[in-house]
Structure to design on (440 residues):
């Protein structure tokens, strides 16, 4: 029986060493991988760095404890006590961190203000106090001067706060399941159930460290499922961005505009070759900017967008002559904005503004001003106006352009587009673009 007991202890020790070593190694691999996953949200990356940092520290405590098991002396005993203490705190703190992550993933951006998260922190503080208390009383566990571990008379009491935290995790997951994707539900379910099962089994049977095994496995499942979910979202966003870019491009390069421009250039080739050459240059610049926009998904200097607008207006000016007047009031131009956000508004001002006047003439004004840390860029016309934004003659073109501009300005620059109009008073399209705090 004694030989069997020795063999069982040796097997348990090697199993715990393998679990701890695997936990340290796998958490380090995940931490390195996280640094290279560009599609992860910044806050998600931060959560995972915290989670795997704790898994690494937790596994390291187990590894140190197992490596010095059997070594006698007060020094080894002190190291074991420290390892046990931090092992307990990190494993329980992981559960609190996962609840915060669950709340964040389900839409609770200020998760630390949530009553659920605060309840988890309160339970963890109780657990922390119990761990401090047992260092002096040995009521939960003890490590004697010979570096021998023993469970205390109230050992199972220390399981209560972590189990309650895990149950709180499950309840929160169930209540917020509608706000989570399938991958997220799988991830958080595994993290709640696997360590909880290991904890319940280990509270009854003193054997292999199932809590550590369950924690490492659950963390890896959480990582795999959430990263997969983030990757799928990233791909969907890329596809949506590509669709938006194409919609913008198609909204801008309308067949009637191309036809009218080419017809005008053809006419000028016979009547005024020099002006025709100028028109071809403007037309080329206009098309190039539209095509280049398909590969640009970040703000560009306003001056570049202005050149595109001027190329478009130069072509319209050739066609409409003195019926179309252009006015620029641009005292502030040191800012950036998404490509193809001003030209659609100018086109609306020409086609659905001044060309709707009785005499088909009028003025388009492009103005800018800085108001604190916000730039207001206004495209206005003196056309007939309308009562509401949704009363546009051709929604398939005008509304598509306005919708795309609004989506792009919000997504890329965090700005907004406001349309102001009234019958007989013209229309104003106002782009509000935030500046960085250090903008001069």
């Amino acid at each position: 029986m004694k030989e069997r007991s020795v063999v069982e202890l040796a097997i348990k020790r090697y199993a715990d060493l393998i679990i701890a070593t695997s936990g340290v190694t796998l958490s380090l691999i995940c931490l390195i991988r996280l640094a290279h996953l560009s599609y992860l949200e910044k806050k998600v990356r931060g959560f995972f760095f915290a989670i795997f940092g704790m898994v690494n520290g937790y596994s390291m405590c187990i590894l140190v404890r197992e490596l010095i098991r059997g070594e006698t002396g007060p020094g080894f005993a002190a190291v074991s006590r420290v390892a046990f203490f931090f092992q307990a705190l990190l494993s329980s703190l992981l559960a609190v961190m996962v609840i915060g992550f669950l709340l964040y993933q389900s839409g609770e951006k200020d998760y630390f203000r949530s009553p659920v998260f605060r309840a988890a922190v309160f339970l963890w503080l109780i657990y922390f106090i119990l761990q401090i208390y047992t260092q002096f009383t040995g009521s939960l566990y003890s490590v004697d001067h010979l570096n021998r571990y023993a469970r205390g008379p109230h050992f199972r009491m220390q399981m209560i706060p972590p189990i309650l935290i895990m149950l709180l995790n499950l309840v929160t997951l169930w209540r917020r399941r509608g706000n989570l994707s399938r991958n997220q539900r799988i991830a958080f379910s595994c993290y709640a159930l696997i360590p909880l099962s290991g904890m319940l089994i280990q509270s009854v049977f003193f054997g292999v460290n199932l809590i550590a095994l369950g924690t490492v496995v659950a963390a890896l499942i959480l990582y795999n499922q959430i990263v997969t979910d983030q990757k799928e979202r990233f791909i969907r966003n890329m596809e949506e961005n590509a669709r938006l870019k194409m919609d913008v491009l198609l909204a801008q390069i309308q067949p009637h505009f191309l036809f009218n421009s080419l017809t005008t250039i053809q006419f000028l080739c016979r009547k005024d070759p020099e002006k025709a050459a100028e028109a071809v240059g403007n037309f080329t610049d206009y098309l190039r900017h539209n095509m280049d926009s398909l590969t640009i998904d970040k703000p560009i200097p306003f001056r570049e967008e202005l050149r595109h607008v001027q190329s478009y207006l130069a072509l319209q000016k050739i066609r409409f002559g003195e019926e179309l007047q252009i006015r620029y009031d641009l005292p502030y131009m040191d800012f950036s904005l998404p490509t193809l956000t001003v030209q659609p508004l100018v086109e609306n001002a020409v086609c659905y503004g001044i060309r709707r006047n009785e005499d088909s003439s009028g003025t388009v004004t492009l103005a800018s001003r800085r108001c604190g840390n916000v730039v207001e860029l206004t495209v206005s016309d003196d056309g007939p106006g309308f009562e509401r934004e949704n009363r546009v003659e051709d929604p398939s073109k005008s509304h598509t352009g306005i919708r795309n501009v609004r989506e792009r300005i919000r997504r890329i620059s965090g700005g907004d587009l406001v349309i102001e109009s009234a019958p007989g008073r013209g229309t104003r399209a106002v782009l509000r673009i935030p500046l960085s705090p250090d903008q001069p």
